[in-house]
UniProtKB/TrEMBL annotation:
Keywords: Coiled coil
Species per Swiss-Prot/TrEMBL record: Halomonas fontilapidosi
Family: Belongs to the transposase 8 family.
Name the UniProt record assigns to this protein: Transposase-like protein
Highest taxon, organism lineage: Bacteria
One Pfam assignment: HTH_Tnp_1
Length: 100
């Protein structure tokens, strides 16, 4: 919408200022949407929406893997301590059989 009406205004900001109240948002909000659209279209430098989503997914995966590693580290320390103390925290696999 901004791109369609940009020619009728002295600047892009003027077009944004005229359109924003008509669609019920602030000019700054609309400006950020326009900038992101320009990035996604390759008309402006910066991180695209797709790249941003990929980064977010990778950060989430990294966080989950760190949590899993911490759980494994604690479990390893627990079992190592139990072995040093001469206690068997659980049955060994070779003596454990499940009969159904």
């Amino acid at each position: 919408m901004v791109f369609d009406h940009e020619a009728g205004h002295p600047s892009q900001w003027a077009a944004i200022g005229a359109i924003a109240p008509k669609i019920g948002c602030t000019p700054e909000t609309l400006r950020s949407w326009v900038r992101q659209t320009e990035r996604d279209a390759g008309r402006r430098e910066g991180t695209t929406t797709t790249e941003r989503e990929r980064i977010k997914a990778l950060e989430r995966e990294n966080r989950e893997l760190k949590q899993a590693n911490e759980i494994l580290r604690k479990a390893s320390a627990y079992f190592a301590q139990a072995e040093r103390d001469g206690q068997a925290p659980c049955a060994t696999a070779r003596n454990d059989r499940v009969y159904r």
